[in-house]
Amino acid sequence: MPGPGRPFQKGRSGNSNGRxxxxxxxxxxxxxxxxxxxxxxxxxxxxxxxxxxxAKGKALEIGMAYLxxxxxxxxxxxxxxxxxxxYDHRADEELEATQFNGNGxxxx
Length: 108
Fold this sequence. Notes:
Order of helices and strands: HHHHH
Number of strands: 0
Strand content: under 5%
């Protein structure tokens, strides 16, 4: 039985009539946009030239996603990922006492 936040009956489709005939699908949209691909590339390049860092950032995000693919969502951290670094055997005091020079290497 429908209730607050549950507008459909359990076990019944919320879209019993299905997709309307002639509705735009992703392949149809791609086919319609394909002749305008160069305009999209030009607009993306224009965003990269924009002085606003937000526009540039969005252009980079979109461009990189289509050039190399979106990066996969990070997997949830496993318990062993949360453990202290097993490869660093120096004591905390020794790490705190380590001096670094300006280029990231340890000073003598």
